Amino acid sequence: MTETTTVHLLRHGEVHNPEGVLYGRLPGYRLSEDGRLMAKAAADWFSGRDVTALFSSPMQRALETAAPLVDTFDLPVSVDDRLIEADNRFEGLTFGVGAGSLRRPEHWRHLRNPFTPSWGEPYKEIAARMRAAVIRARDAARGHEAIAVSHQLPIWILRMHAEKRRLWHHPGRRECGLASITSLTFEGARLVEVSYADPCAGMGGQTGVAGA
Fold first, then answer.
1. How buried is 196 (Cβ within 10 angstroms: 0-12 exposed, 13-18 middle, 19+ buried)?
2. Which segments within 119-176 are labelled E, that is strand?
3. Could you state, in order of their start, the residue ranges of all structural domains in the chain?
4. Which sequence ranges form a coiled-coil region, renumbered to this chain (predicted)?
5. Residue 85 is among the residues annotated as catalytic for this protein
6. For this structure, is 12 an active site residue?
7. Can you give the pLDDT at residue 6?
8. Of the chain's two ends, which shows fewer C-beta atoms within 10 Å, N or C?
9. How many angstroms separate the CA atoms of 124 and 92, rounded?
10. What is the CATH code for 4-197?
11. Which one of the listed residues 8, 12, 151, 161 is annotated catalytic?
């Protein structure tokens, strides 16, 4: 009989970011108080499930989101660099019009191609590394469930890749809220279902910075 395995991609909780910058891969960005509550709520959502493996992006906010899961399942968390946030040329800047980075002409050249995109890590590369991370998690939890804590853009790109949709998109149309769960279910090595849950909807600001 073919084994059923589910890999849950958990987006981290809300980040303490009073300056409103695109923090990307910058170190030191921790969860806010609401973010810690979201991490606990996500762990409660998973309670009672057959989780046998935990993975996380190396970023602080992801590891802090994983911490309640370590306690819930009494499992170690394995850091997988492939789950990291996408690289972005606007990292460390405020993004948008007005006082944001879009007002400065020296940044406009990075906006020339939204299909790659020209301002950061190519979507195809994100999809490839995230797929590899999911395969690792699937194989580690074969016949059970795994959780991998990652970030909004990588999770969304993997979902679109899995659903055979185009990778370029408008950031405002991503279905990937803070501490939300995108689940991939496999029969053996074959993906049979992609589902989504948002146990923390309505908690915190639920806005953040795109790609966080």
1. middle
2. 145-150
3. 4-197
4. none
5. yes
6. yes
7. 98
8. N
9. 24
10. 3.40.50.1240
11. 12
Rounded-to-integer distance, Cα 191 and Cα 2, Å:
12
For residue 91, the model assigns a pLDDT of 75
% the chain with pLDDT above 90: 72
Would you give the distance in Å from CA 4 to the centre of its chain?
A: 23
Q: For the chain, what's the residue count?
A: 212
Among 6-20, 46-60, 98-112, whose mean pLDDT is lowest? 98-112
CA-based nearest residue to 191, from 135, 151, 146: 135
Q: What is the DSSP letter of 164?
A: T
Residue for token pair 């970023």: 59
Among 14, 64, 85, 145, which one carries the catalytic annotation? 85
What's the one-letter identity of residue 104?
A: R
Q: Which of 72, 58, 73 is nearest to 28 (CA)?
A: 58
The pLDDT value recorded for residue 210 is 39
Per-residue pLDDT tens over the stretch 11-32 = 999 999 998 888 999 999 999 9
Helical (H) or strand (E) element with 190: strand 190-197
Q: With 50 as the cut, is the pLDDT of residue 209 above it? A: no
Split at pLDDT 50, 70, 90, the class of 92 is confident
Residue 16 burial by CB count (10 A; 0-12/13-18/19+): exposed, middle or buried? middle
Structure tokens at 22: 């695109």
